[in-house]
Amino acid sequence: MDDLSTRQQQIMTLIHKQEYCSIEELAQQFEITPQTIRRDINLLCQQGIAMRHHGGVGLPVTLSNRSYDARQITNKDEKQEIAKNVAKAIPNGCTLFLGIGTTIACIAEQLVNHRELRVVTNNFQAAHTLSKFENIETWIPSGRIRANGGDIVDDTVLNYFSQFAADIGIIGCAGISELPYASPQTTYSAEKKQDVAMEHELREARVSQAILENSQQTWLVANHTKWQRKASTKVAALCQFERVFSNNFKGN
């Protein structure tokens, strides 16, 4: 970072705060031309500290997620707005599955006024918040809490979720990728594409799939940067969710 100009350091600060910035956004922010921004981005990418994505720049691809504390402050306002919209849609008196992630933890904070909820979650931060609400019954699996994620994703969690039947299962994801479409009756097609929710690790994806398999309704929460982030493990196609909560999605 010492070799970067002041503007380039400020660009990196924005990238870490938002996870993704468009070229147009950065040009307006610094009141310079898109061409100048592109030169800055090229230098950042050459140093391996940034990566170009769909008309902008984001964090480099990694095999694992960033720390929970780092993710908690990224796009915080947007995550809280999504969480408020989700909470409004959750009826009283239902059984709810909550998966991993910081947006899910924000949803837990918004449930303070709900009544007669049973919540099953492997998200320790969400469980800690919900444990303060006397009107909510909270269940968590046993296992090791990951320091990087604030959650439990051991194999025992798969069986734990299968013991319940949820009215609504809500998960987040590490990224959303456009992949070739396939169904059990067809082969992969290079021409037909679909958006797929992805996770960094297989065990994370398997836990999310267990939540979906044991829920009557399945909801996905994903802030706009998920469409610019890469992850390697498939969870489910977006068309399989009854609802997708995001400012980047035009569906229900």
UniProtKB/TrEMBL annotation:
Signal peptide start and end residues: none
Pfam families assigned:
DeoRC, HTH_DeoR
Q: Does the record's keyword annotation contain Metal-binding?
A: no
Where do transmembrane segments lie in this chain?
A: none
Gene3D superfamilies xref list = 4-hydroxybutyrate coenzyme like domains, Winged helix-like DNA-binding domain superfamily/Winged helix DNA-binding domain
Q: Which UniProt keywords apply?
A: DNA-binding, Repressor, Transcription, Transcription regulation
Where does the source fall among the domains of life?
Bacteria
Q: Which InterPro entries match?
A: Carb_Metab_HTH_regulators, DeoR-like_C, DeoR_HTH, NagB/RpiA_transferase-like, Tscrpt_reg_HTH_DeoR_CS, WH-like_DNA-bd_sf, WH_DNA-bd_sf
Using the record's annotation, list all stretches that form the HTH deoR-type domain.
4-59
Q: Which PANTHER family match?
A: GLYCEROL-3-PHOSPHATE REGULON REPRESSOR, HTH-TYPE TRANSCRIPTIONAL REGULATOR SRLR-RELATED
Q: What's the protein called, per UniProt?
A: DeoR/GlpR transcriptional regulator
What species was this sequence derived from? Photobacterium angustum
